[in-house]
Design brief:
The chain is mostly helical and 155 residues long. Helix content is 59%, strand content 11%.
């Protein structure tokens, strides 16, 4: 911990961090202890400036990684079918539209191989996201039944 403490309300802390973290996340991080406080003065909470810088750098780095993953390569025509499928599955709708032009060309030339690659990529992505979806929805995936079941139900 540095020797100085900066005092912020949740609203001013959001501005101090450049608005890159939502206030609801800040409140949750404070209550969970992810963002440590060092005292309270009315509505203002004390924070270590080094902790704030670390949080800001981590969040900025996370946003950069997400942005890089969403950007398709300069030339989708140079990609293999599997790479094109992975890029399409990871992209958001506007980026998917850019990739769809190349997918359409390949479908006209070579049939359904590229569509199978996209389907496989979407399946891999769904498998990675399923545990997170289950936690958020309060369910779990039953391998035997091949469906999600609300927690607490046995039948």
């Amino acid at each position: 911990m540095s020797k100085t403490i900066e005092w912020y309300t949740v609203a001013t802390l959001g501005r101090r961090l450049g608005g890159i973290i939502a206030r609801t996340n800040l409140v949750r991080w404070i209550s969970e202890g992810k963002l440590k406080t060092y005292g309270r003065r009315g509505l203002a909470l004390g924070f270590d400036p080094a902790d704030l810088e670390r949080i800001q750098l981590n969040e900025t780095a996370r946003r950069i990684r997400l942005a890089e993953a969403a950007i398709p390569p300069a030339d989708p025509a140079a990609m293999s079918d599997d790479a094109l499928g992975d890029a399409y599955a990871a992209a958001y709708s506007d980026r998917q539209s850019l990739l769809w032009l190349e997918i359409s060309k390949r479908r006209e030339r070579g049939g359904q191989a590229v569509m199978r690659s996209i389907q496989d990529a979407m399946g891999r992505r769904a498998a990675r996201l399923q545990p997170l979806i289950d936690v958020m929805a309060g369910t779990y995936w039953s391998v035997e039944r091949k469906q999600t079941i609300p927690k607490g139900k046995t039948k």
